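Hi all, posting the design record for the shared folder.

TITLE: backbone redesign
STEP: 1 of 1
STRUCTURE INPUT:
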């Protein structure tokens, strides 16, 4: 179902957001409204010198910020939390303008930062406080673990969630006492700038976060060259280059890369719930979500019933270019990405796959619309079987038993997300425990694991290095110092004691410590 475009609405003034970027405003690139392709703002194009200046300003601001207490830093984020909720409509507008996603998804993207911020407002002081450890020798030694910010964190963020992902790492980095230089994708820089403007309004020091961007190959590598920690979200190919250069510089990095995520439906699953959830898990954000499902494996006994019901529901999806909540799915982000998605489907059809629904661009709706698409008969040699499509396309596969389902699901270089459906909790958990992936969602199609902010969120295999969320999502932006104190000089043989006698006594002491479970 394709909804008509509603009357145009007033566009927010985006000039102040563009002005937050470093660079010469006389050398700028266009940002366009995805639904129409019309320019909506011009953003200054940063060069290598601008990136270096951004890191210089951020370093100068970071020292004073790190000296403030954690509680004092958190006051800024309490105000930021309130401002994001208050400005939800403006945030959704800007996200939609730049990405073309349905407003439902723009709203849900907006919600991610308040959820994340709430978590660290509750737990940051506990996570960052000094930790006492048992000393090397009980009673006469002590150890204290201190946490220090790494310095200036370089964040390179993608276009698919330009508001949430730009700051889901920047916020814990800032809470930990760091500065940030942020390089958003050139198609979606204004969403990140809007988040920064709200942080400024909440009281964040002006120079602490720097924005740099270009529509070429300069700013991304330059950020990696200057950062004390690199946080990258994007493709596997680029992630490999980022990790290699960060490794050469001996600075830590964290990477969230691609996924070819499987969904497993057992015969006893509630198909009403599966179909409803799969629509969101596959086509949410027009399929442009690292966590979304691209492969659905269904047990033989219920394969045909699920297929028919799912295809019928997908055929009724409301697709439109609208700035209200009526559309279920919006556009793809760029014409280039539309071409990639279409090429995957065309390759599959040419090699014998069947299109059950969808399978066509929709230029009548806008320049980057593509129909929600379900494929059957996808085989090993097809691009859509192995490569990440990152669009509104899913392939259906039957399987005979749980062992086969696990084998098929794990048959990928990626390991980011998975979904398992069953009314038997033990059967679902048995499968989940065998999947080679960073998240498994039981009876949920995609985002439940990531939305659990108290738990780590990362990937296995080629889906990334390191994690977001949880204690480690904050601690990764720090380095530890262990301060060990010796209260009595016992670390060595007393003067005049033969070393053989000292060694014998040490062995006895180690045996005693093991029995007392002290070490």
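Okay, here is what came back for every position:
SEQUENCE:
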């Amino acid at each position: 179902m394709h909804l008509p475009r509603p009357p145009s609405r007033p566009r927010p003034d985006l000039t102040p957001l563009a002005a937050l970027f470093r660079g010469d405003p006389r050398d700028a690139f266009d940002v366009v409204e995805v639904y129409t392709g019309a320019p909506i703002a011009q953003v200054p194009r940063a060069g290598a010198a601008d990136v270096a200046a951004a890191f210089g300003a951020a370093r100068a601001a970071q020292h004073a910020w790190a000296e403030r207490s954690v509680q004092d830093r958190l006051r800024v984020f309490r105000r930021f939390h309130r401002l994001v909720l208050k400005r939800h409509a403006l945030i959704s507008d800007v996200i939609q303008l730049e990405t073309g996603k349905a407003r439902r998804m723009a709203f849900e993207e907006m919600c991610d930062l308040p959820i994340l911020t709430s978590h660290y407002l509750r737990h940051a002081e506990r996570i960052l406080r000094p930790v006492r450890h048992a000393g090397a020798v009980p009673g006469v030694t002590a150890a204290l673990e201190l946490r220090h910010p790494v310095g200036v964190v370089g964040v390179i963020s993608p276009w698919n969630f330009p508001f949430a992902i730009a700051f889901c790492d920047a916020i814990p980095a800032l809470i930990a006492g760091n500065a940030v230089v942020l390089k958003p994708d050139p198609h979606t820089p204004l969403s990140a700038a809007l988040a920064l403007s709200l942080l400024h309004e909440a009281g964040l020091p002006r120079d602490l976060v720097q924005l740099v961007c270009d529509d070429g190959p300069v700013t991304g590598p330059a950020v990696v060259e200057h950062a004390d920690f690199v946080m990258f979200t994007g493709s596997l190919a680029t992630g490999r280059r980022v990790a290699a250069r960060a490794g050469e510089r001996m600075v830590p990095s964290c990477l969230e890369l691609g996924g070819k995520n499987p969904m497993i439906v057992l015969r006893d699953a509630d198909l009403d719930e599966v179909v409803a959830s799969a629509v969101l898990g596959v086509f949410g954000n027009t399929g442009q979500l690292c966590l979304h499902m691209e492969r659905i494996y269904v047990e033989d006994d219920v394969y045909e019933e699920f297929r028919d019901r799912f295809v019928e529901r997908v055929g009724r999806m409301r697709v439109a270019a609208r700035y209200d909540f009526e559309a279920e799915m919006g556009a793809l982000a760029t014409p280039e990405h539309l071409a990639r998605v279409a090429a995957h489907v065309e390759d599959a059809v040419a090699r014998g796959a069947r299109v059950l629904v969808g399978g066509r661009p929709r230029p009548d709706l806008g320049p980057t619309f593509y129909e929600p698409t379900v494929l059957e008969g996808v085989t090993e040699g097809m691009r859509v079987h192995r490569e990440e499509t990152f669009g509104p396309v899913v392939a259906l596969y039957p399987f005979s038993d749980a062992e086969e389902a696990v084998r098929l699901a794990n048959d990928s270089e990626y390991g980011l997300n998975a979904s398992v459906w069953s009314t038997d909790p033990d059967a679902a958990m048995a499968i989940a425990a065998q999947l080679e992936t960073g998240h498994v969602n039981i009876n949920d199609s995609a985002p439940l694991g990531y939305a659990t902010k108290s738990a780590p969120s990362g990937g296995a295999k080629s889906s990334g290095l390191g994690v977001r969320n949880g204690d480690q999502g904050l601690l990764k932006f720090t380095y530890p110092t262990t301060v060990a104190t010796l209260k009595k000089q016992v670390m060595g043989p007393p003067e005049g004691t033969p070393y053989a006698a000292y060694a014998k006594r040490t062995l006895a002491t180690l045996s005693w410590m093991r029995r007392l479970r002290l070490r």
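COMMENT: The longest strand covers residues 24-32.
Let me know if anyone wants the other runs.
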